[in-house]
Amino acid sequence: MKNKIHNYDFLVIGAGLIGSLTAVCLLKNKYKVLVIDKNEQFLNDKRTLAVNANSKDFLTKLGIWNKLKANPEPINKIEIYDTINKFPLIFENTNEEMGNVIFNSDLLVEAKQLLLKKNLLIEGINIEISKIKSNEKIKIENKNYLFKKIILCLGKNYENEDTIKKFSFPSLHKSYVGFFDHSVVHNQIAYEIFTPEGPLAVLPAPSKSKKTSTFIFSTQNKISRTNIQKLIKNYFSKTHGLINLKKKIYEYKILPHLSKEKFNQFILIGDILRSIHPVAGQGWNLGIKDIQTFISLLNQYEIDDPNLLADYYKHRSIESFTYLTFTSLINKIYENQNPLNNAIIKSGFCILRKSSFLKKTFIKQAMGRLNLI
Ligand SMILES: Cc1cc2nc3c(=O)[nH]c(=O)nc-3n(C[C@H](O)[C@H](O)[C@H](O)COP(=O)(O)OP(=O)(O)OC[C@H]3O[C@@H](n4cnc5c(N)ncnc54)[C@H](O)[C@@H]3O)c2cc1C
Prior knowledge:
Elements lengths: L4 E9 L5 H10 L4 E5 L10 E5 H9 L11 E3 L1 E6 L6 E4 L6 E5 H14 L3 E3 L14 E3 L2 E10 L11 E5 L5 E9 L6 E7 L2 E7 L7 E8 L5 H16 L2 E3 L4 E4 L3 E5 L4 E3 L5 E2 L7 H15 L8 H30 L3 H16 L1 H11 L7
Parallel strand pairs: 1-2, 1-10, 2-8, 5-13, 10-19
Antiparallel strand pairs: 3-7, 4-7, 5-6, 9-10, 11-18, 12-15, 12-16, 12-17, 13-14, 14-15, 18-20
Helix pairs in contact: 1-3, 5-6
The structure holds flavin-adenine dinucleotide.
């Protein structure tokens, strides 16, 4: 029995927000999958996710959407302000909500529970990734396994030059995330303000009272809690009334990059493939599109067909590159304000305000309803 080999279709390494869902999705599609993570628990993520319409459909199909502990908070309108344009850019969609805000940890708990129930998740396992291969024996907790394919969902921090080549887009920004209560209801509106210090996003947070919001402020400067409070009061007292910032503020690194796998061995999904600045609130939504693309290609190719990987990377490259350059560029332009950059920003606002076609396209893209390839 000691030499018994356990045959699986997929090994997913990394059980974060994308790895867990990749595995649940593969399972629903009748593949045999095992998930491992080097960490025992990863449920202390205090952030929220702005889930776009496409990702909501994805979670609904997996049976997870209706099980989330806190009710998702809809976003019906997005208002974008800066210090250059007199009037905001407003995006609204009347057919369906543009997105929903949920807690990261609620989602992770549900996805992990589905895997744990079927004994498909093993935590606390750290294997040397550059030494493993598909269709070769891999030892995990004293058992021998063979996997037809290995999927890496290791997040943006993973560095290993033996396995992947990373193209980084340096950013000096750090993100500060927290919550605040307010005396006036948020009206399901999300805001993005390009302040002189960096972009400040304020989103309705899941709450029955509709009087709690979450913020994500990205800046190169070190900023104190008092100054964040001042900033939020300055921009949001008019719309949100009396503001009471919650005690804890969390800091997150920003590591925008694109990665390429070196030896046609692994499938990269989620932040390990591409990580973008959170200004667009789309990083995880793009990871969901990675999963959807991969699953749909599995209908065309056998698991070990080399064209599967090639086609997957081809399909995901344009959208990844577009989002990475768009989010990096927009920050650079706002950071370096000069007459040329100001003119670019003004004309961008003006074109989007005047062209209902462009506006609709922008909304569809943000909702995940448009495919760039
Ligand atoms: C401030 C902030 C706000 C954001 N807001 C939004 C938003 O509103 N909407 C949106 O779409 N996106 C948002 N994002 C992006 C989103 O958080 C990420 O895209 C998403 O978390 C990526 O998930 P992942 O599973 O790829 O990586 P992670 O969640 O980082 O998971 C990686 C997993 O891999 C494991 N791991 C790492 N190395 C190893 C190893 N060697 N062996 C085994 N396991 C390993 C880790 O333990 C972890 O569990 C935001 C990001 C930030 C920073």
